[in-house]
Amino acid sequence: MAAHSCQFRVYYEDTDAGGIVYHARYLGFAERARAEALRSLGLAVGEMAAQDDIGFVVRQLSIRYHSPLRLDELLEVQTHLVEAVGARLKLQQVIRNLSCEGRKSVTIDVELACLKLTDMVPLRVPGAYLEKLSGLEIIS
Amino acid sequence: MAAHSCQFRVYYEDTDAGGIVYHARYLGFAERARAEALRSLGLAVGEMAAQDDIGFVVRQLSIRYHSPLRLDELLEVQTHLVEAVGARLKLQQVIRNLSCEGRKSVTIDVELACLKLTDMVPLRVPGAYLEKLSGLEIIS
Amino acid sequence: MAAHSCQFRVYYEDTDAGGIVYHARYLGFAERARAEALRSLGLAVGEMAAQDDIGFVVRQLSIRYHSPLRLDELLEVQTHLVEAVGARLKLQQVIRNLSCEGRKSVTIDVELACLKLTDMVPLRVPGAYLEKLSGLEIIS
Amino acid sequence: MAAHSCQFRVYYEDTDAGGIVYHARYLGFAERARAEALRSLGLAVGEMAAQDDIGFVVRQLSIRYHSPLRLDELLEVQTHLVEAVGARLKLQQVIRNLSCEGRKSVTIDVELACLKLTDMVPLRVPGAYLEKLSGLEIIS
Q1: Residue A8 lies in a domain
Q2: Which candidate, B30, B23, B9, B14, places its Cα nearest to that of B93?
Q3: How many CA within 13 A on the CB side of residue D139?
Q4: Contact D25/B at CB under 8 A
Q5: B14, B16, B53, B109: the active-site residue
Q6: What does R_g of chain A's alpha carbons equal in angstroms?
Q7: C140 lies in a domain?
Q8: Contacts with B19 from chain A: Cβ below 8 Å
Q9: Which of the 8 DSSP states describes residue A33?
Q10: What is the mean pLDDT of each run of 10 residues along chain C (140 residues)?
């Protein structure tokens, strides 16, 4: 099974006066990629919210910066499932620089909590969701 | 009567790879300044939303860029009332570079619409609000 | 000749607590679209900077908000050339909501200045650039 | 010795459609606070870059989300030094919600690398900098 992968371009809005991508922007790319990974499994964030009153929020996140991305470069985000237990989902995301031979740029480990949105209370990830999430490549 | 004025610092998050403040960030500084101007008049955006179900959204905006701001510089936003008619509020905001003798950086003309938030319908600016808004210096 | 068109998705990073896309984010979408329009003509922003020491900065911009975009919606930015004279380039960009029958969301009129990047001095748009820019649909 | 502390307000630009501060924005608040902490010690980021060709970049960062911040709330960032060894600086930053009895919102552990900016090569933190940095409260 392949990891979910999607690509984004670096624009001026992503860079800072150091001439490289601003460190917090990688979290934005990763969030876009999680949304696309979920959408590809039939779990679009807008529909989850509207139909099921369910959302995923970030509980914990760590990011290691290996090499910076620069203006105009093309990047790929690979999203892997690490585990799904109770109300928690752990993912690993790797961002690579496709304009530089796929060099690894950052590694992100993120733990999400499944929430009932109206009252922001943690919720066991529904079985139907788990089934769909099993479509993500699992690494450990 | 003095215009409402507040100050912000330029951080890396505000800059881009051109070494200057990213052009869309000035709209963020202006929004912060509008929130502070309203708060100083007793109209905090959070309270307006929670207590009165009222918010102001941007309908139209134009911005002229006179000279760029850079990392670490201190800026001042002056907010003036141009007019308040029906559901519309027109403001002019000038951003100056306090790290560079107060040189004018951008001029923003913005037209806001007053909305009932639950159904996003335009709403005549309430009289009690107009009275408070009269505390802003008027230019024309 | 068709206008240059490209599509982007709305993610959480683009929205605000009003439940809609934050008003300054439309300028980010428009900047991405200008970069893609230029790239499609052989004028990638990174190469222009590195090879020719040339960049385009925003001098003036006005934006009208017709209807808000929301989380997860797909948008299209159409970029038209209005005129290219001396060091100035005028573009009009229209953002439409493809998740809502192509409804017009915002209209942006933007004036760019061509600059020599090392000293930030205005520069007449080079003839080779003008030739490439003629590939953009012209409206007036 | 007291930790360095500074305060910021939450504006619309910081929030997302979930009604809370967007998860990556906390990194922006933390970066602002590091810049202010360094400035208070006589190490303004702009001057370090211009005079000493020195900058600090983020090598690694982890963030735990305890409770969300919302529109209009006032937050405090406390910045502590954990250790400074060779080219590395470790800081811990805690963000508290002053609009909610100082409730802890996030904890950030960040490792910075000192770089010579022209060639982006790691550089042992200069002795004069270490002396100034000793003005930050140390926790372990």
Answers
A1: yes
A2: B30
A3: 11
A4: no
A5: B16
A6: 16
A7: no
A8: 17, 19
A9: H
A10: 89 95 98 97 91 95 97 97 95 98 98 93 95 87
| Rg (chain C; Cα; Å) | 16
Q: CB–CB of D57/D113 below 8 Å?
A: yes
Per-residue tokens: B4 = 């409402």
Q: How many residues does chain C have?
A: 140
User: For B101-140, b where at least 16 C-beta lie within 10 A, e where not — what string?
Assistant: eeeebbbbebbbbbbebeeeeebebeeebeeebeebeeee
pLDDT at B56: 94
Rounded Cα distance between B104 and B70, Å, is 13
Q: Is C89 among the domain residues?
A: yes
Q: Which residues contact C62 (CB under 8 A, 6 or more apart)?
A: B60, B61, B62, B63, C108, C109
Q: CB of C117 within 8 Å of any CB in chain B?
A: yes
Residue B140 lies in a domain: no
B21-44 b/e with 16+ CB inside 10 Å = b? bbbbbbbbbbbbbbbbbbbbbebb
Summarize chain A as % helix, strand, coil (round to 5): 25, 40, 30
What confidence score (pLDDT) does residue A120 get? 87
Token pair of C40, please?
Answer: 């499609």
In the predicted structure, residue D10 carries a pLDDT above the cut 90: yes
For residue A46, give the nearest of C10, B97, C43 by alpha carbon: C10
Predicted local distance difference test score (pLDDT) of residue A33: 98
Q: Quick one: tokens of D118?
A: 């022209």
Touching subunits of D (3+ CB pairs, under 8 Å) are A, B, C
**Count of structural domains within chain A:** 1
The confidence score (pLDDT) of residue D139 equals: 83
Query: Amino acid identity, residue D12?
Result: Y
- Domain of D24, CATH number, reads 3.10.129.10
**Does the global pTM surpass 0.90?**
yes
Is B115's Cβ below 8 Å from some Cβ in C?
A: no
Range of the domain at A84: 4-133
Q: Could you tell me the pLDDT band of residue B118, with boundaries at 50, 70 and 90? A: confident
Q: Is the pLDDT of residue A1 over 70?
A: no
